[in-house]
């Protein structure tokens, strides 16, 4: 397992709340087939739902945090009152539908999207990313490590999110195809933060994340 101290880093310059132009979206609308079809965002990790850990990381860098979900709305409202569901929630159209639905509801020029199954992510990483991306001149971006692109971790211009509608109408739900079409650029994640992008896709990974969180937060 990665050294838990890699989760902790000096906090970069804070994103000035008065100047924030970003709405946060926690993507929690999947079926979680590898987790026995549990609602992944509500799975307990160290006494809290996965979505709650992600919301904690996002709160310091965005104006508001929405959760994109398709079921268990009462439970998600205990995490945030601001929920978004797809136009056809029972069809599980994928994360693009959740991003599009949120873009139609908010008035900020940017969206910060984080999937609910990366609960180790921290404000430090998100603040570093936003601070390094010029929100005036730069295009939509997504996180990239040496091993892979993390396409659902994306800092999105709202106008780019609205372009999802045409792609979905064509039956294409692939996130990378949308990112390529809008000219999105990768943001290279500093090595210090790589372990924060651990995905929780299996019970074994959930157990490993719980042990890591205990060492970090003493929960």
Can you walk me through this structure?
Its cofactor is Mg(2+). It is an enzyme of class 2 (transferase). Belongs to the MobA family. It contains eight helices and nine strands. With 219 residues, it is α/β, with parallel strands linked by helices. It has a seven-stranded mixed sheet with strand order 5-4-1-6-8-7-9, sandwiched between helices. It has a two-stranded antiparallel ribbon with strand order 2-3. It is globular. The two termini are 18 Å apart.
Layout of strands and helices, then pairs:
Elements: E1 22-27, E2 44-45, E3 48-49, H1 50-58, E4 65-68, H2 73-76, E5 83-84, H3 95-103, E6 110-115, H4 123-132, E7 141-144, E8 149-157, H5 158-162, H6 164-169, H7 175-181, E9 185-188, H8 203-217
Parallel strand pairs: 1-4, 1-6, 4-5, 7-9
Antiparallel strand pairs: 2-3, 6-8, 7-8
Keywords:
single chain, 219 residues, alpha/beta, seven-stranded mixed beta sheet, two-stranded antiparallel ribbon, 30% helix
